[in-house]
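Batch manifest line 208
LIGAND: glycinamide ribonucleotide
JOB: complex structure
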Amino acid sequence: MKNKLKVAVLASGRGSNFQALVRAAAAEDYPAEIRLLIVDNGEAGALGHARENGIEVRVVDCGKRRGSMIPEASQEMYRLCREREIGLVCLAGFMRIVKGRLLDEYEGRMINIHPALLPSFRGLDGQKQALEYGVRYSGCTVHFVDKGVDTGPVIIQKVVPVEQDDTVESLSVRILKEEHRAYPEAVRLFAEGRLALDGKRRVVIDYE
Ligand code: GAR
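JOB STATUS: finished
ARTIFACT:
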């Protein structure tokens, strides 16, 4: 397949969602290719997966403040993406709020995966928040990134039951399985140009 959408993934840790995207993109008929992995630390497990798959990696120093990024980092990430003609930026367990140049330039072309059914349980530890609240169902959400924290328009959600004896770990495993289905699906929809914003909030999917 020609003219695949070029994707950059931003990650901070284990990288299982990054791997799920790489796996999906290995299919000949998948409309996107993973061109670049950007991490904010040299320990990120995602780095190993990228190297095994021959994907370019960059470590960008985002500053010492947890959850935040310095303007220079945002500028640098934007430069890396622009130079490679990246058409979509995917946050996959990237534990910093994206702001500055990268968001300014890529808003509408940047998506995130969150381990809860938004708008419930935004921010850190979505699975723990859901368990503590006592909901019967949770899941994951892929959404566009905007200036808020996990507030952008929803693209795909997958639901899982919460069992009586669940721990944060067991619930996280159940949700993660769905994340690995949802993220490649969302990237495919974006790459095929099937996502449109109806007004400001609602994403309309063209299923043909
Ligand atoms: C995933 O569960 C993802 O949804 C979550 O971090 C994990 C990363 O796992 N993201 C957030 O909580 C963002 N707010 P991975 O590194 O194996 O993909």
